[in-house]
Write a structure and sequence with these properties.
Blueprint lengths: L11 H23 L2 E3 L1 E6 L4 E6 L5 E4 L17 E3 L1 E2 L4 E3 L5 E4 L5 E5 L2 E2 L1 E3 L19 E3 L1 E4 L19
Length: 168
């Protein structure tokens, strides 16, 4: 006599889906941890300003607006056509040569901050080292994000006078 095959409580496609979900759940924390930080800034000596400033990874000067403090955003709407927020995906920790933070913009994007101030690129800078946004006054004043003053250049030393007024 033949015995009836024992029926499986879960059909094959459902079993596969459950197994795939279990594997994904095990691997997801490892993958998420690997993508939680991103290099977004460097620093460079700016000859025009005589200071070391934060730049994008492509070498463009980063700025902050003096009036944007304590989570208050001034640069919104039309301002964003000239001043481009340095943003990262939500949950990503920005890294660079100095301690950076983040703040949520009014539009929901995550903007990078330095010393509590949101960072922006300036549309008027066209190449590395440009600092054309420095000192622009609006509701506040735009300044390059300075990380250090430039090393002082030694002044030329006076040459001793020759006791002979005429060269030989």
């Amino acid at each position: 006599m033949r015995r009836a095959a024992k029926s499986d409580p879960l059909p094959s496609p459902i079993r596969f889906a459950l197994l795939a979900t279990a594997v994904a759940a095990l691997l997801l924390p490892a993958a998420a941890g690997a993508a939680t930080s991103k290099l977004v800034a460097k620093q460079a000596q700016n000859a025009t300003l005589g200071r070391t400033v934060l730049t994008t990874t492509k070498g463009r000067t980063l700025y902050s607006l003096s009036a944007e403090t304590k989570g208050r955003f001034i640069c919104t709407g039309a301002c964003l056509a000239t001043w481009h927020p340095l943003v990262v995906p939500a949950g990503v920790k920005p890294t660079g040569p100095v301690k950076l933070g983040t703040i949520e913009r009014p539009d929901g994007r995550t903007q990078v901050t330095f010393k509590g101030r949101p960072l922006y690129g300036f549309a008027g800078d066209s190449k590395r080292g440009d600092a054309n946004g420095e000192g622009i006054e609006d509701v506040g004043t735009w300044h390059a994000a300075v990380t250090a003053a430039a090393a002082p250049q030694p002044e030329p030393q006076p040459q001793p006078e020759s006791p002979y007024p005429y060269p030989y």
